[in-house]
## 1
Amino acid sequence: MQEDYEKAVLVCEDTMEGIFSAVYDGWHWSVKGCPVEIRTEEPRGPELFCTVHHIPSDQEKSEKVLRSVRRKLGYAVYEAVCFAAVSAHPEKGTAVFRTLRSALGYGQCRRDILEDLADPWVNLLMKLRTRVWRELDHYYGFVRFRAVGREILLSRITPENDILLLLAPHFENRFPRENWVIFDGRRKKALFHPAKGKCTLRTGISVEELPASGHYPERADEYEDLWREFCKSITIRERSNPGLQQQMLPLRFRGDMPEFAEGGSR
Amino acid sequence: MIVQESMGLMDKLRILSDAAKYDVACTSSGVDRRGDGKGIGNSIAAGICHSFSGDGRCISLLKVLYTNECVFDCKYCVNRSSNDILRTSFTPEEISRLTIEFYRRNYIEGLFLSSGVKRSPDETMEELIRSVELLRYRYGFQGYVHLKAIPGASPDLIQRAGYLADRMSVNLELPTAEGLKKLAPHKSRRTILRPMKQIQMHQGENQQELALYRHAPKFVPAGQSTQMIIGAAGESDYQIVSVAEALYRQFSLKRVFYSAFVAVNEDKDLPAPGQGPPLLREHRLYQADWLMRFYGFRAEELLSERKPNLNLLLDPKCDWALTHLDKFPVEINTAEYRMLLRVPGIGERSASRIARARIHHSLDFPDLKKIGVVLKRALYFITCNGRMMYPTRLEEGYILRNMLSLGEPLPPGAAEENYHQLSLFEDFSLG
């Protein structure tokens, strides 16, 4: 009986689906009164008084969780937990779980849970949400496509958080009749969008497997030169302010942007 | 005038974007329009910044002139007809192609097309319209378009342009009619304000139409903006701010932009070159502009005939507070929202947080810190439950001194009792 009250450490896949499957499975430990932690990596050393469970990702479970969050707690909470779930923070899973637990546990339905910033887990969740949202907002502007071959637009990003899937609705609506691919160089996965079709996500992809990747590094796009020229000539030299430029467009984004390659717009 | 007919796209882009850079507006905001899946593009109300240039300004639109051939001779402008520079023009095909190719690569949010006046205002306006028509109809472009209305173009052309563009603007250039006459002899108040009024009137009618027919075509849905040059003709901040206020009130403009004068020409009527643009003054004017648009200030509260210029050392709100110390300190827990907004250091976000939080329980200084209110400036002007944060004095000289010694985390009176050197002449008004 003793082990029923030990802390349950759930290890799941580092995806939205994995996290929410763990939330689903973690609920019954929590109801019994065990503290629950959700991690995306194996615990490093041995830990006392806790049991480690591996949770396989399950689409049905994750959809069930998300559906009831949206229905019971509203869109704002739904968006916040989704954003937090893709962040790069190691405690994101626990933050999502504990927040949902205090919103929906004990027979409650607190739709205003996000305002309870005194709760450390809600506070963390909101911080993660903001961080992910900021990065997403940056990437709406900073994604750069390169035309390869005749018909394909290819882009590479290296985001801190796993925002690839969140970019899909924006670019789907913006470029519905283009074949485009956004490749997350850090996580080796890519978003494929065929013209007039729906987006698909593929994981475990290397640069070589991308369509027309032979062209990617070598054959430059003529419009990249035009764009570089534009960025250079639009700068007013008398007002030069590289500090402000760096504040608005931090260096970590610049590796994937053509205007900052070879000399850039300084 | 040297007009180069056969020039590569690269050279044209360099020349014509270089000539367009002094136009400040690069906003892509104000319109929410989802793509319909048939063409390319959409528009987000908040706007998206796609890059930042070396001067720290956002690049969100492809900002170019259609042509830099110009028959006008405005003294502050690089493209004045008497300047001996390389002249060139895009064609509507080139402009629309360039925009689409940039847009596909997610470099830009749309097009900002301005132009020099080639031959006549009407002819130029027609070419601008043709470019945008190509973009909208041939390429099915649903992104953002900002079009300049050329001063002196005929009303029906302005009207056609308005249905194609999201935002239109006519630059006021100089706040006073005399300044305009001196520096831009070919422009007049009438040719600038007439299209502005026309756009405003038609927009009003369009609103009515849209209320009746939801799918009626939209006329300039993101509103219109304008721009004034700062520091070219010796006008005062009071004049500038009053003109801006009038523009917001009477012409319902979305934005007035201020552009610090950059000396590109030498002319006896212009300030001597080599001084650098008055960037700080421009910054203060933007601050004053914000106070008028979002904080409920009126122009005559900030400045007057007797005090015609903004204080460069202090932001306008601090400056206002220091001359109205009778209205302070403000009690955080009971003050009206409008008064909270007037406290230096408390912005819209902090004020609304305070207003929401104080419903639940009374606020003290640690609570203010926790909800994210910055107290660096505000602490001199507020009380929480009747107490100030530190023993500070509500005196103009004292607060001013502390405000100016920036970088100091606490005022001198924070840690110990505050001593003040007595002076027979000041403290006892002898002499």
## 2
Amino acid sequence: MTPPRPRALTAPSRARAAWRRLLAPIGLAGATALGLLAISVVPPVSAAVRAATPLRASSSTSSSRSSAGKVSLAVGKTLFDQSCASCHGIEAQGSTLAPSLQDLGAGTIDLWVSSGWMPLAVPGAQPLRKTDRYTRAETIDIAQYVASLSGYRGFGIPKVGLAGTSVQKGFAIYAEICAACHTITGAGDALSAGITAPSLHSVTKAQVVEAMRTGPGNMPRFGPGILSNQQVKDVVAYVVKEIEHPAHPGGLFLGGVGPVAEGFIGLFAGVGLCILAAFWIGDRTPRHGDDAHPGAQNDDDGPAGEGGGREREVEHV
Amino acid sequence: MIDRLFNWADDRLALSRGGRHLLNKIFPDHWSFMLGEIALYSFIILLVTGVFLSLYFVPSEHMTVYHGPYLPIDGTKVSEAFASTLRLSFSVRGGLLVRQMHHWAANIFVGSIVVHLLRVFFTGAFRRPREINWIIGANLLILAIFNGFLGYSLPDDLVSGTGIRIAFSILESIPIVGTYLATFLFGGQFPGSGIIIPRFFIIHVLILPLLILGLLGAHLGLLVRHKHTQFPGPGAREDNVVGSPLWPVFAAKTTGFLFLVAGVSALLGATTQINPIWLYGQYFPWKVSYAVQPDWYMGWLDGALRVMPSWEIHFPGHMIPNAFFPAILLPGITFTAIMLWPFLEAKLTGEDRREHHLLDRPRDRPVRTALGAAIFAFYFVLFGASATDVLANYLSLSLNFVLWSFRIACIVVPLIVYPVTYKICKELQETPGAGKRKVHNIVVRDAEGGYHTIPAEEYPGFVGEEAPPLDVDRIDVLTPAGASEPTPGIYRIPRDYTD
């Protein structure tokens, strides 16, 4: 009995077999790429759910306390232990997962919590802005509690009044030091490697000051040696008065991203409407002779030269 | 009375002969022949609004103190150019509307030139005898892009100032002569000796518009000389033109179209803000904003600058800067290729250099169509690449990822577009009736539960089956002396372009 001979592969079927072998890895790679893309674009469901249903320690007490205006370190500690200590450590001393918060002032903590960057939902190049999950009073409680752990040494939570500020000076400083990343309209933009300069269209006065004075993430720190308190307040005045309420007497604002949006409107609305008008005025019926060969209807025209002569003849009208 | 006036004038000017010839010019009725008119009419709008703006604009870089209704700049030092642009936006009645109309019309102007160019390319209207007109058109596109950039730069605001800075570097990057050119144009190192705005102004309002007007005249003159191309259709042949005469049919249509284009410009100017320089502020060389883009028609160059890897070529003793390749070499190759294309195609196809007055349907020239589509896709990807930062920001992606995607896409996308377009053309060729109007069907259910298909009722104006072509009288446009005006309708006149 002869062993079964391996089936001779003809050239096309060998190619098909090769394809079949490649199909699985290609499909896997494609699926992986799609999955990675999806992960990078869509936040995980659990994070979305957590953001939607904020954990409130004691919303009733916090609201009554906020009217009284007193800071409760006890509430701050509770909230810190619940949501921050698992990474930053019970004494805010830091861990392998997160940096130490010792020696940081209440201003830093307030900025990171009130902007929704913390607690962190998605580890990445940069924490993303979310709706903050604490009330203003709870945020201050957490910030003061963390500051109390190291004796209130860092930059505190500022109280910003805009009396005596100048939007003109603020605009000049803004254009010089802020626009290079946040863009001149404050729309924010992507910097390299996943870092972004966030939009300034909905920030609070305190956040602007805290960001400038403490330099969160990639942002440089503009300390008192660079900008005086008055200059910082001028910038705040420009941001909350003009950037958050930009003058757009010319019509639709288009998001403040400049010629990118304008170009799309110009091409699709401008040129597009004009083309539609041409389509409307012009003849758009497919002509009957579309498929006819040119010159098939050899009916009535004489030679072109003769016609040309006749045309010239009657020009004297 | 009017007749006598005309006769009096005609006895002395003898205009009626040429006028009669012109009024009888036949214009094909297909809508795609009106794309170039969008450019023509938006240019007219640009001239009219531009004259208004020039009454108020002060082309000077002298510093002055702005006083006006816009608070964040009130009382600060800005240049005369910037201050006068603010004044004409906020303090001149209707000034902002006219300024925005001017800017939108500029966007429409260049856009319609590109669309017109694509139409001419894909239908083969550039072939003999129209090669020269094709070259003139390509030059008009170059001039339009340049003039758009200059106009964008005039207000001396932060965003356009950054653009001028980039233009300076691009100019500098030309080997050997670049530094001299840049120094001559700017009167020294950047930002120059305060002369760049006045120089840009005179180029923008005088020199380039004159050139554009001259070339436009030549473009239209050659159009009259060659007569229109036309799609194959009833009675349409290589040696005639089928359409409506200029007077009265086409004149009415085209005048209406002028108003429609003006209406679109006014609509955008009145409702959609463009280039809010008051948010940008005065340009100073030490200030810069992120997310700065040029207007869209420079976008492909900006995108090319962005996706270009950081390569520099060192000759012994001489370095060719990086910006040279995407910003000088690429447009140079692009426009040279555009202008040479009619000759290249005639050579490559081995076709004899016959005259062509009948247009191709793009599907019937699959290679040209696919090649054009692939090259257009390349520029479209570059155009998209000028928005890498904005895209990365809005999609929450890493800027580096977006940039590398565009680097890959500008090579891969054309390679995909070519075979796909080619295949679509071939399929369309094989499909009878593709692109024709369809007869709509209605599915009805009868009492027994069965389903039937019946043709839809005709709605007013619906022509399921096209009517057979009418017999068209020949040359009766040109009535003998003393006869009345020709009646409107479809006419066919012979081409006199036989020499």
## 3
Amino acid sequence: MNSGGEALREPWESLRRQREAAGFGMWLFLNSEALLFGALIAAFFATRFYHPQAFEAAGKEAEIVYGTVNTLVLLTSSLTMAVASFATRAELRRVSFWSLGLTLALGLVFLGLKIMEWRSDLEKGMVPGPGFPMEQPGAVLFWGFYWALTPLHALHLIGGLSTVGFLTWQAARGARPLRSPAFEAAGLYWHLIDVVWIFLYPLIYLQGRASS
Amino acid sequence: MSDLAARRVRPAEAPAEPWHDNYLTAEQGILSWLTTTDHKRIALLYMASLLAFFIIGGFAAVMMRLELFTPAQDVMTADAYNRMFTLHGTVMVWFFLVPSIPNTLGNFLLPLMIGARDLAFPRVNLASWYLFNGAGLLLLLSLLLGGVDTGWTFYTPFSTMFSNGYVLLAALAVVLVGFSSIMTGLNFIATVHLLRAPGMYWFRLPLLVWAIYATSIVIVLATPVLTASLLLIVAERGFGLPVFDPAHGGDPLLFQHLFWFYSHPAVYIMILPSFGVISEIVTCFARRRIFGYTFMIYAILWIAVIGFLVWGHHMFVSGQSLFASLVFSFLSFVIAVPSAIKVFNWSFTLYRGQITFEAPMLYALGFIGLFTLGGLTGLFLASVPIDIHVTDTYFVVAHFHFIMVGGAVTALYGGLSFWWPKITGRLYPEGWARFAAVLMFFGFIFTFFPMFIMGYAGMPRRYGAYPPEFQIWHVMSSSGAVLLAAAYLLPMGYLTLSLFRGARATDDPWAATGLEWRTSSPPPRHNFRRMPVVDEGPYLYHPESEGPHHTEREPHENQGRGA
């Protein structure tokens, strides 16, 4: 009970062990998340296998500018989150809050751009259902996956934003010591959101443009 | 009793002193239960929830058996019958069988058996219980609004385009309960990795711990795929996004692939923990070391891995390529090997043991028989030609009920009897318990064996009306179900009664070796007064390579010391 202070929780006897557990537990959860997105991406691939041309044509309609800028934004937020993980562990107060704040801001920028992208998709009528502009059979399936995958990813980002936001708020109030292992665990989760996007980006924006 | 029989393990009764400090009395009041992070209390909370769902699912089964008593569709409409078997399947699979042993016995015993004070993430454990109940309420809501008629498998395109039940609510409930199982699973894995007592090496873990560990890995890796497939159903049905819709070029079989990628491993999620329970009981009441301890572990892990590679055997008639079917068929035979290893090893553990027939042992022996039958008929179904003959018949229904009900539920009752003194500090009435165990075995066979015969003769599943030549089998089955229901209800009665009237249990009423018996019954809030240290493997019931062969009980060695 001496080394950890208030960061230490039941049933752990040292903060080092508790930190190990938080990381390990989060990695297990990430495995689970990887299979969730893995299954969806596999379904995307399987369906694309039946309709390669239609998927390419449909992919050309995806907004690559938004997608690319968002990729850069999200990768940068992962960098700031990584800095935050180390800074909190080293109890560098100023760096911690700056990097956590930047992470939150970049996450919000991603969401904002995403919403603008969705609005532009809607204006083009890229919604499955009556009035869908593309003739090719199968093109509508691409957009079916698009509207299933990108909101699910955004939902995960909102989860990440709430977690990091909540932890930062607790730390700012002094209710959570900076060396709490929760920051590192939240960081791991944040990187997963990034990694998933790295798979979604080529699937959505690049696969239609690669061959022509 | 002849000279050959060993003396019974008569559980010693403790004097009725005032209880010392234990987890049940540590805090008082309903709020202390609802906010507890004690794994033992959460196990009891789960028991209460699971009991409710077991009764709901059982009610649906009773309604089905009632309808099937006569060939005509007379008790309920065909539509209501569809909703009944969907309710039965959904509730029993996700709200009873998957969490049954891990979340009750596992939650209670895992930290005790490895010498830990609690699970790695106590608050996650409590959160998983709330999530479980939330999901359960959603499912009940869908039931009260009118139910779902898709069957527990939610096959597309019926579930996405034609079904007029509350599919979205039910699918959402299953997604949420999946998260609850993932939370429990990762908690168990982290606990086994990080909180073992000093000296409790991996190859000294009791087999129940290994079984729950392997189950948890399967839960963590398979459940998200179910979530994915159900989310796609929600997307298609709720938001009109075509994913599986063949009219737009989608592939309905894709759903089946994703669904069975979870749901076949789910079968092992349901049965693996019972393997662990049976290993604990058989060794204790045969007073023998487990035969082939390391092979039992490899068998568990083997099943956990290969379980991911056999899902295609649910799709032999779906039109998948014959080559794929043959590969899946071969792998399904491969996965039968470790299950057979386990049955052989239990049998060899019994060989030359000092067997006594207490109630947990009766359940365990019943389990071995029923599981063997269920497993062997599984091989019938793994062969493509026979499977094509019996697809969607009562043969399949009988097969998986032998594993799920004859196996998993029997093991749950066996385990509950075995650890009842540890959980409550009271002994259950032995006579009643033995009667219930035997009744469960006969009731089960009486209910489900006729299904093999009528299924082979061509009786299809999921119909409320049937040709009159099958009536004799259905009458047998429905009559057996009455016995089975009695055998399930009986323990609920005498176990509850034992809470008030039961004799006091000592710390170790069965003279068993595990760490969970090295603390008081019921255990204190933090499990052990002094943390145990381990320097031996489990199940040291007799000296190595030597079987007891006389009427005197062999001395046994406990796994932990210093507790």
